[in-house]
Amino acid sequence: MEDSKDRMDHHADIEGTTIFDGKMAMKGYALNKMCFSFNDAAAREEYRADPEAYFDKFNLNEEQKEACRKKNVLDMIAAGGNVYYLAKFAGIYGLNMQDIGAQQTGMSLEEFREKLKKAGE
Asked: Concatenated DSSP letters for 52-118?
């Protein structure tokens, strides 16, 4: 019987896959805490008014700040972000799942949408 460590090791072999485990949760704590704060409309407005001050308020490290500045969800995941919390961040900028899918595949949004259309035919 395969234990959870074996399953995680197996998934670590999938190129481009970042496993969100305890180590990543610790790494991304500040980033995820910041993103969770966006459940509150006042927090979203505070962030929009001064993102850099908001990063500092939550003690983001430079890797996390740069990923947020670039609005790059894959970089945020690599910096310890959990996709469920990052969705709050993406929503501030009007990013949807197709935008994130395009980032994940390295395609433009238009290319990704065309890929989806073709897959549905």
From this structure: HHHHHHTT--HHHHHHHHHT-HHHHHHTT--HHHHHHHHHHTT--HHHHHHHHHT--HHHHHHHHHH
